[in-house]
């Protein structure tokens, strides 16, 4: 289980834009479901974007015109007989708001308006649609969501992610064809958000640590790494000679069961152990020895038995913890702070 309000805090850390003044009072507002929360975020975000001005791009157009501009397409003009109408087919580039990202915003807003969110939020979203009058909507079911961002469209990053969450995680079709909302995002979407939240929390709240999600090199005898999978950590925290690698996990079941015995997911344990040993090997030729630990950080479920343990494996500490996302956010933050403090207390003390 996860409190709806905690989803806002997770999104706020994952996308720092939500830390701004325009969104701050969302933190104390109560929401009945995830859909209403995302609708409120999108309403405020799009309103801010409209005030700034909708993003524009050069869009290539080809059409029959009475007053020629750009390049005249003579063969196309003859083929379409536009000359008989005293027109010429011209191709030209226009600096337009009719962009792919604006199309995604328009289509997502229209989708939310047709769904069963609160009437107040439907009205607020509907008032935004006229600003997209010159924008063609997109087919969200075919959208691949592979979007490149640069300094000119950074303000759209959070908006596109919220649209993705709405389209991929929330909307389903009823038998009668109407749209309704699931109360929560599915495991795949929540897993990505959970990972991003924990990473950005440590990056924001623990500036004394080096925080990242780096790749780890395989410790190879001959350097031959063809066909080996990449080792990309979820979160790596470091200070001085102490390193903690955290692998976040968001599952329906935090443990696996074989016969009458429950245990940590074996694949998860093998993975974090591999990360730790290969990371440790990176420091083999450094003058100072390093302490490398690993942690599996599961989102707590309603199961009676939750994984919780600290193991010493081949000279390294591997721990398994759960993070309870159904508590007050201040308590969630305290859980994360305690993890950092426990692992880096010696570095802070200068030992």
State the major sheet: 6 strands, mixed
Shape: globular
| Fraction of helical residues | 25-40%
Instruction: Give the second-level CATH assignment, the architecture of the largest domain.
Output: 3-Layer(aba) Sandwich
Radius of gyration: 26 Å
Query: In what order do the strands lie side by side in the largest sheet?
Result: 6-9-10-13-15-14
Strand content: 15-25%
Low-confidence stretches: 177-184
Order of helices and strands: HHEEHEHHHEEHEEEEEEEHEEEH
Report the top-level CATH class of the largest domain. Alpha Beta
InterPro entries: McrC, McrC_bac
Enzyme class: hydrolase
Protein name: 5-methylcytosine-specific restriction endonuclease system specificity protein McrC
Keywords: Endonuclease, Hydrolase, Nuclease
Structure description:
This is 5-methylcytosine-specific restriction endonuclease system specificity protein McrC. This protein has 351 residues and is of the alpha+beta class. The protein folds into three domains: 4-55 and 98-185, no CATH class; 57-96, no CATH class; 189-349, 3-Layer(aba) Sandwich (Trna Endonuclease, Chain: A, domain 1). The chain has nine helices and 15 strands. The strands form five sheets. Strands 6-9-10-13-15-14 form a six-stranded mixed β-sheet, sandwiched between helices. Strands 1-3-2 form a three-stranded antiparallel β-sheet. A two-stranded antiparallel ribbon has the order 4-5.
Topology overview:
Layout (H helix, E strand, L loop, with lengths): L3 H11 L19 H19 L4 E9 L5 E2 L1 H7 L7 E9 L3 H14 L5 H8 L30 H14 E3 L5 E3 L5 H19 L4 E3 L2 E2 L14 E2 L2 E5 L2 E8 L5 E4 L2 E4 L1 H17 L8 E9 L9 E5 L2 E8 L5 H21 L2
Parallel strand pairs: 10-13, 13-15
Antiparallel strand pairs: 1-3, 2-3, 4-5, 6-9, 7-8, 9-10, 11-12, 14-15
Helix pairs in contact: 1-7, 2-5, 2-6, 4-5, 4-6
């Amino acid at each position: 289980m996860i409190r709806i309000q905690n989803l806002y805090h997770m999104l706020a850390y994952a996308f720092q834009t939500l830390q701004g003044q325009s969104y701050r009072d969302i933190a104390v507002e109560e929401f009945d479901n995830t859909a209403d929360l995302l609708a409120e975020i999108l309403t405020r975000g799009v309103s801010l974007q409209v005030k700034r001005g909708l993003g524009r791009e050069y869009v290539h157009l080809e059409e029959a015109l009475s007053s020629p501009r750009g390049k005249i397409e003579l063969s196309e003009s003859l083929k379409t007989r536009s000359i008989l109408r005293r027109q010429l087919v011209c191709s030209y580039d226009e600096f337009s708001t009719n962009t792919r990202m604006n199309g995604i915003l328009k289509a997502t807003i229209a989708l939310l308006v047709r769904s069963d969110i609160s009437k107040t939020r439907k009205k607020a979203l509907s008032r935004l649609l006229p600003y997209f009058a010159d924008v063609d909507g997109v087919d969200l079911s075919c959208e691949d969501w592979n979007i490149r961002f640069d300094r000119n469209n950074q303000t759209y990053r959070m908006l596109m992610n919220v649209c993705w969450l709405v389209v991929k995680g929330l909307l389903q079709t009823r038998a009668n064809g109407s749209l309704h909302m699931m109360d929560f995002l599915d495991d795949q979407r929540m897993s990505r958000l959970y990972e991003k939240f924990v990473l950005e929390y440590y990056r924001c709240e623990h500036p004394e640590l080096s925080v990242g999600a780096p790749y780890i090199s395989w410790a190879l005898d001959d350097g031959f790494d063809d066909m080996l999978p990449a080792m990309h950590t979820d979160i790596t925290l470091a200070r001085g000679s102490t390193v903690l690698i955290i692998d976040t996990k968001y599952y329906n079941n935090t443990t696996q069961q074989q016969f009458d015995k429950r245990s940590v997911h074996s694949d998860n344990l093998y993975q974090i152990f591999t990360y730790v040993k290969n990371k440790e090997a990176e420091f083999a030729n450094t003058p100072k020895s390093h302490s490398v630990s690993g942690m599996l950080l599961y989102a707590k479920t309603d199961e009676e038995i939750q994984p919780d343990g600290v193991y010493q494996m081949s000279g390294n500490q591997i721990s398994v913890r759960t993070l309870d996302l159904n508590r007050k956010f201040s308590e969630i933050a305290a859980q994360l702070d305690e993890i950092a403090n426990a692992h880096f207390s010696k570095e802070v003390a200068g030992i």
